[in-house]
Amino acid sequence: MTDQHYQSNLQNIALGKTTEYKSNYDPTLLYPVPRKLNRDQLAAQYLSNMQGTDIWHGYELSWLNVKGKPQVALATFSYSAATANIVESKSFKLYLNSFNQSRFNSADEVKGILEKDLSALVEGAVTVAIHQPDDISTFKLNVLPGKCIDELDIEIDQYDLQPDYLADATTSAITSNNSVITETVHSHLLKSNCLITSQPDWGSVVIEYTGAAINHESLLKYLISFRMHNEFHEQCVERIYADIMQHCKPEKLSVYARYTRRGGLDINPFRSNVHLTPPWAVRTNRQ
């Protein structure tokens, strides 16, 4: 698929356009982005066993009760990476804002409406959990699992995606007896840009694999090379997954990105050939 064809499929997207904010419930504000658009650009064999979950947190959810009194809450949205579509982020924000001046009987009613609308959009089941503002246990901060590789003393001058950094990432670090290891590493230096607006997307990423040892310097340089790359959050994580599978050939691989919020939403894609959902309960202090 050409970039021109890719862009033509996104021309109606709300991102980057002047938009009227509606304060009464309107599910037509939601806009889908087919996952296929990005996956057609990646080598299919490296995605063949990939599964996972997209986890969003909403920090600005509000509606009116039947007496007109405002209610505020936070929400967690989860849906499978096997669904046909992702939710375009600005349309999601506009949709959530449309609840602001609408009356609902209860938080359970709001939850049911959210699940129905979002499930129809992504063409698969979306699970919604609504949290009260004082429910701090759900949003407790955690340190990312594994070794942080950010302190490595590397030199780099390439900030547009460089998968070739991974080409020798295993051969340069492999042990003399060709042993297989299991390792978890993380980095806070992931930055990419929105595909439509080029606004910066800041994130932290966890990578766990079983296979030949991956050179940490090469891996860090590869992650930093996303710095000027334009792609949606979910697409970046799938590209990281596919590139590591192609160049490093691990037996098992999990990639989990925790992006900072924008517009009251954070996006946390997880991809793996081992787990359906993240095996770690994490939330960074940047979120």
Number of strands: 10
Number of individual domains? 2
Approximate strand percentage: 25-35%
Q: What is the helical fraction, as a range of percent?
A: 10-25%
Shape: elongated
The CATH superfamily of the largest domain is known as: GTP cyclohydrolase I, C-terminal domain/NADPH-dependent 7-cyano-7-deazaguanine reductase, N-terminal domain
* Quaternary form: single chain
The CATH architecture of the largest domain comes to 2-Layer Sandwich
Which descriptors apply to this entry?
disordered N terminus; GTP Cyclohydrolase I, domain 2; 28% strand; 2 domains; two-stranded antiparallel ribbon; 287 residues
Polypeptide structure, described:
- This protein is α+β, with helices and mostly antiparallel strands and 287 residues long.
- The protein folds into 2 domains: 3-139, GTP cyclohydrolase I, C-terminal domain/NADPH-dependent 7-cyano-7-deazaguanine reductase, N-terminal domain (GTP Cyclohydrolase I, domain 2, 2-Layer Sandwich), CATH 3.30.1130; 147-272, GTP Cyclohydrolase I, domain 2, CATH 3.30.1130.10.
- The chain has helices spanning 3-8, 36-39, 89-97, 107-122, 216-224, 233-248; strands at 32-34, 51-64, 70-80, 85-87, 126-131, 147-148, 181-193, 200-211, 252-259, 265-272.
- The strands form 2 sheets. The chain has an 8-stranded mixed β-sheet with strand order 5-3-2-10-9-8-7-6, covered by helices on one side. Strands 1-4 form a two-stranded antiparallel sheet.
- A hairpin with a 5-residue loop joins strand 2 and strand 3 (70-80).
- The longest helix is centred in the middle third of the chain and has 16 residues, at 107-122.
- Residues 1-6 have low confidence and may be disordered.
